[in-house]
């Protein structure tokens, strides 16, 4: 690789809000999105909420000359809604479906059926290994009483761990998507602090677009205005995050967002705003590679975020266990009721009533059984994530006791040598 | 690292068959397993089918002086049953739960409830990065008519991809576990060919133990003799697999298995046999690092295995879609029946019969709905894995057309440079 190596990457990200039968002007918006992507000719276009594979196939055909490589990440009952179009060949791809993703009985919210996931693409560009991640986390339906908070924190941790473990040999890491997290939310801080990813909106010198970089705006005609009432400028929940891992330097030259309107037809491309980033990757000659410095402040910030996340997951485990116990009692009660009904039916007297009540009792039993199984699974999933956090926290505390300076680096497995038998 | 660097690793693996209330002599076997592990003082002990976390906690307490680090991988409703005890500090761990793992309505088989997964541990030993994977794939209940074959192939692919993407910076990779795959089964060949892992039993010069390295033996008193009838020596489904990735050479000095009996008390430790391997890792000075050579034969073997797996998954997708369609028809029929019953109940005449039939109809509807959702999810999961295989196959064919020699290396992402805009 030449020492003057420099690579410019133009990235597009959009949550397309393309739900068959439900999303307004879906066909027209898909068509205009395709035209726009063809016209702009980005290096990578990462899309979320493309729920119908027919829409993906339509875009694939339309974008084929400009974006020869494309992939749809299949998962869940409906989704995952994630897809990607690339100007450059995709070397490898894989996906990781989140262990926890809402509740199947919250049918009106539907997230459980989507199989929310993170998709990974590996690209080799002029000798540079680029790991691109695209994701969509669980939606937030009520910020005051958010019953999905724990699941979203667990997803953010799973996402951070997946990126951490799969990007160890990458030169550049890029994460785009709808995180359904505000910049200061626990999940967002956890993700950024654990992976070391930088936020394009905060880093760029040249931003043009919506006020405060928001990606859901009140002026967008598809947005539910009531939901955005507490946020006069809108909310920022879609992100372009990046980092360079080794010997490279990455910066965001420009960041643009759409602003809730389309200059031509008047209706926007989606209920979310699109993000368009121009990233520049440069090679740092070995003698100029800055050694990572991690101060006390950075370390204690990481530790406090890890603690906060641990507490959140611990609460979630307790709640999931409460539901399991409750469902267990209902199962016991249902069995008792069934035995009583069988005895009544055999004895005569209120025989017909007993037979009539038999099937609802079986229904109750099966329902409670399903709730039991689901929340047991939830408790196990949350315990798994909590154990990982606990381990990282334990190591952070050990290091604090030893007074080590470079804790985040050590925690992230960049330091070696524990001493074992060597012959 | 010294050029004469050499590391000896003693590994223990056992599927413990520790199902609360069901497995015979569980408490006694756990106690003896703990004593044995303490006595032998392995570097790593990897266990499967430790279904109760109480058993894990018991072992943890017992093994604490010899194995200060331990972890249980939590997932599913019951499991995952995977745990690990290590003499050396564990730097990092994470887990990946398989997308597909049997059917929830096959309650008597129970695999769906276990949340089968792969656990990853990262250890740093004298500057060497060791990635250890422990797993347990879906059981095989009927080899002649194996309804779980597709799921097991999909799991093997997911496992291979997880190892491939998370071990890129590891020096040594180790995979232990109960794969529920015979050595020549498609899943086993796919896993070995895609990851490049070597089989300790086939590689070692010094093997002592069961005939043909089998890990389920007819002479083991806990084994269902009828199931092993077609295999007079038993079957080999538990493995120690390994590879060195960069600048290191790994070999299996010795491999031992238990032989279905315990020399002292007479009853074995489990229905599976334990594997005990001594691995030796040596440093290869840069000038002696052999360049990987991948010939035509190797390439065409990989392509043919990938094709075979693709066909298997494609059959699985078709079958899952058939079930979805079937459940869809049943849902339609159930709705029709419900409407008819409502009309009859309103009209009089056979009113009581109509009311009586109402609840079973609702039950039928809900049941069919659950089957629909489950198989839809199955089809999406299998499609995801099939798309990954399709991509790899496509690239293999492209390379064949170009007449490239080092295809597996290229497919595994070891070759760089595609040509993109460079300024």
TrEMBL record, chains A, B:
Cellular component terms per the entry's GO annotation: membrane
Localization in the cell: Membrane
Region (Disordered): 404-423
Catalytic activity: a sphingosylphosphocholine + H2O = a sphingoid base + phosphocholine + H(+); 1-O-hexadecyl-sn-glycero-3-phosphocholine + H2O = 1-O-hexadecyl-sn-glycerol + phosphocholine + H(+); an N-(acyl)-sphingosylphosphocholine + H2O = an N-acyl-sphingoid base + phosphocholine + H(+); 1-hexadecanoyl-sn-glycero-3-phosphocholine + H2O = 1-hexadecanoyl-sn-glycerol + phosphocholine + H(+)
TM stretches of this protein: 326-347, 353-374
Pathway: Sphingolipid metabolism; Lipid metabolism; sphingolipid metabolism
Topology term for the membrane: Multi-pass membrane protein
Signal peptide range in chain numbering: none
EC number per UniProt: 3.1.4.12
Domain Endonuclease/exonuclease/phosphatase: 15-272
GO biological process: sphingolipid metabolic process
Names of required cofactors: Mg(2+)
Keywords: Hydrolase, Lipid metabolism, Magnesium, Membrane, Metal-binding, Sphingolipid metabolism, Transmembrane, Transmembrane helix
Domain of life: Eukaryota
GO molecular function, one term: sphingomyelin phosphodiesterase activity
InterPro entries membership: Endo/exonu/phosph_ase_sf (IPR036691), Endo/exonuclease/phosphatase (IPR005135), Sph/SMPD2-like (IPR038772)
Enzyme class: hydrolase
PANTHER family in alphabetical order: PHOSPHODIESTERASE, PUTATIVE-RELATED (PTHR16320:SF24), SPHINGOMYELINASE FAMILY MEMBER (PTHR16320)
Sequence similarity: Belongs to the neutral sphingomyelinase family.
Protein name: Sphingomyelin phosphodiesterase 2
Organism (species): Callorhinus ursinus
Gene: SMPD2
């Amino acid at each position: 690789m030449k020492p003057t190596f420099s690579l410019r990457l133009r990235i597009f990200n959009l949550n397309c809000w393309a739900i068959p039968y439900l999303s307004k002007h879906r066909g027209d918006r898909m068509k205009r999105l395709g035209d726009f992507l063809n016209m702009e000719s980005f290096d990578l276009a990462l899309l979320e909420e493309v729920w119908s594979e027919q829409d993906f196939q339509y875009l694939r055909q339309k974008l084929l000359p400009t974006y020869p490589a494309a992939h749809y990440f299949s998962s869940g009952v409906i989704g995952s809604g994630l897809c990607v179009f690339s100007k450059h060949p995709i070397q490898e791809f894989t996906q990781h479906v989140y262990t926890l993703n809402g509740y199947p009985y919250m049918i009106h919210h539907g997230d459980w059926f989507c199989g929310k996931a993170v998709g990974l693409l590996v690209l080799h560009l002029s000798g540079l290994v680029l790991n691109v991640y695209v994701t969509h986390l669980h939606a937030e339906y009520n910020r005051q009483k958010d019953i999905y908070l724990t699941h979203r924190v667990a997803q953010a941790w799973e996402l951070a761990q997946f990126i951490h473990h799969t990007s160890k040999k990458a030169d550049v890491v890029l994460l785009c998507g709808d995180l359904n997290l505000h910049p200061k939310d626990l999940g967002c801080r956890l993700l950024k602090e654990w992976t070391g990813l930088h936020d394009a909106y905060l880093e760029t010198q040249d931003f043009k677009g919506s006020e405060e970089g928001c990606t859901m705006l009140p002026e967008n005609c598809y947005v539910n205005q009531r939901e955005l009432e507490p946020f006069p400028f809108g909310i920022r929940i879609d992100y372009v995050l990046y980092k360079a891992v080794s010997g490279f330097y990455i910066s965001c030259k420009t960041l643009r967002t759409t602003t809730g309107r389309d200059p031509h037809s008047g209706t926007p491309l989606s209920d979310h705003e699109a993000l368009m980033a121009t990233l520049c990757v440069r090679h740092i000659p070995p003698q100029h590679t800055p050694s990572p410095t991690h101060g006390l402040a950075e370390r204690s910030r990481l530790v406090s975020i890890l603690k906060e996340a641990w507490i959140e997951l611990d609460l979630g485990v307790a709640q999931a266990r409460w539901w399991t116990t409750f469902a267990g009692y209902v199962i016991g009660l249902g069995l008792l009721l069934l035995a009583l009904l069988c005895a009544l039916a055999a004895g005569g007297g209120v025989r017909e009533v007993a037979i009539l009540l038999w099937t609802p009792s079986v229904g109750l039993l099966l329902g409670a059984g399903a709730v039991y199984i689901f929340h047991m699974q939830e408790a196990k999933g949350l315990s798994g994530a909590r154990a990982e956090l606990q381990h990282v926290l334990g190591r952070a505390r050990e290091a604090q006791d030893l007074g080590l300076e470079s804790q985040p680096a050590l925690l992230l497995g960049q330091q070696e040598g524990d001493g074992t038998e060597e012959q």
